[in-house]
Structure formats: structure tokens, C-alpha cells
Amino acid sequence: MAFHLFKRNNEPRPIFATLGTDMHCHLIPAVDDGSKCTEESLECLRTLKSVGYSKVYITPHFQHPRFPNNEDDIVRRYGELCNAAAEAGIDIELAGIAGEYRIDSGFKARLDNPRFLQVAGKYVLVELSLHQQMPGADEMIFDMQMKGYDLILAHPERYPYLNIDGPRIEQLLNQGVYLQVNALSLGGFYGEEARRRAYAIIERGWVSFIGTDTHNTLYCQALRELSHSRKIEKLLEKHEFMNNTL
Ligand SMILES: [Fe+2]
């Protein structure tokens, strides 16, 4: 009896059902620092389903020179993942393949010959350096917008040099850059400072998307734990996000 109670109480809860769509995760096996093999990717997809997601976009890193992925190869590998998920009977919609593009020195070359795998064919998911401000990053963001791309900036709460009370983040918002917070930031997965910043920018109404940024089964464990948080469930209900438009 005690065992059953324990098991039931620890079942993941579908707190992300209101979002519906995860638009940020690293589940193409062995192309970046995400999932290492197909089995791990399938396990992560099962977890995403269990915490309420019905649809997912996969977004491997494109980062020079650490993850020199190319779009054709990633599209091919995505097809293989879709086949494996179908064979395993995983009940979550693989809605498309996109990328998480690092705005770094290698990004300049992309601007001359742009070909981006976009979330829902509409948004380019970009990230900044996690450590230090890259000179010229804002100019590259502006260039992308001038070329007609809609940008989502991944996890602004994770850049220690990006002051959420300073002018730069407001400038990005005013330019029409969408912000995406990581769900796990809300549970302190990346530390207290990222957690505080994630809550603050959501409360200000600045955040359009929540992503899981799932890399592997460690993240899955954290997501299952997070699914028991009433505080986060309420936050997701209180604020309107655009995930379900994807
Ligand atoms: Fe990511």
C-alpha cells in the first residue's frame, strides 16, 4: 500500500499542458551536448509527454566551432528520430526541426548566406554567449531583423552580463525580439540568480515563450520534479505565452 501511494504521488503532473508545445530541446542524438543516443532521445520525449506537452520542435545547437552542424545533415537525422519515435509508439507530435543558433564570430558568415532552420518555419531561435558579451552581437541581431527574420532569444535569464534592469534588454524587446525563458530556470536548475531573473521578466510580461531546453535524462528528472510545483503551475496559468501558437 505504502509503495502504491509513493508511486502515485511521484507521477509527473501535466503542468505544461497549457503551453502544449515545447519549442527548445536538444534531442537529435549525438550532434551537440544534448542527447547521446536514440534511446535517450525517446526517453526525453516520453518525459515531455508526461509533463503535459503534446507537440515538440527539436533545436540542436549551431555553434562555431564547437558544434559545426549543417542544416541538411540535421534534417536527415531529424527524419531518423521521427521514424524511431513512431516505431516506439511515442505519443507526442514531432512538429518540426529548427536550430538554436549561437550569435558568435561564426554567425557573421551565416548572415552573408543565410539558411536557418526555423521554429514553425517562422522564428529563428538564437542564443548569446553564456559567459561574456560578444562585441557586435546586437548589430547582428539587428541585421537579421533587417533581413526579415523574427527572432526568439533563448534563456535571457542565463546571461549574467545581461542586466534585466538595464537598457539593453528593453532595447531588444522594443526591436521586436521575442524572449524565451527555460522552464527549469523557474526551479533553480541554473542557480538562484537565473531563477530570480526568470520570474522577474515573466512578471513584467516580457516573455513570449517557455522552452524546456531538454538535453538529456538529467533534465528529464528535473522536469518531473518541477511538475509538482503548484507555484510554477499557477505562474503558467496566470501569464499568456505564445507556445500554443506554434
Ligand atoms: Fe538550448
Features:
single chain, 246 residues, alpha/beta, TIM Barrel, 6-stranded parallel beta sheet, 3-stranded parallel beta sheet, 9 helices, 9 strands, 15% strand, binds fe (ii) ion
Tell me what you see in this structure.
- Helix 2 runs parallel beside helix 8.
- This protein has one domain (17-245): Metal-dependent hydrolases (TIM Barrel, Alpha-Beta Barrel), CATH 3.20.20.
- It is 38% helix and 15% strand.
- It has helices at residues 2-9, 38-50, 71-87, 107-112, 137-146, 167-174, 192-203, 217-226, 230-238; strands at residues 21-22, 55-58, 61-62, 93-97, 100-102, 123-127, 150-154, 178-182, 207-211.
- It has 246 residues and is α/β, with parallel strands linked by helices.
- Helix 2 (38-50) links the parallel strand 1 (21-22) and strand 2.
- The chain has a 6-stranded parallel sheet, with helices on one face. Strands 1-2-4 form a 3-stranded parallel sheet, covered by helices on one side.
- The structure holds fe (ii) ion.
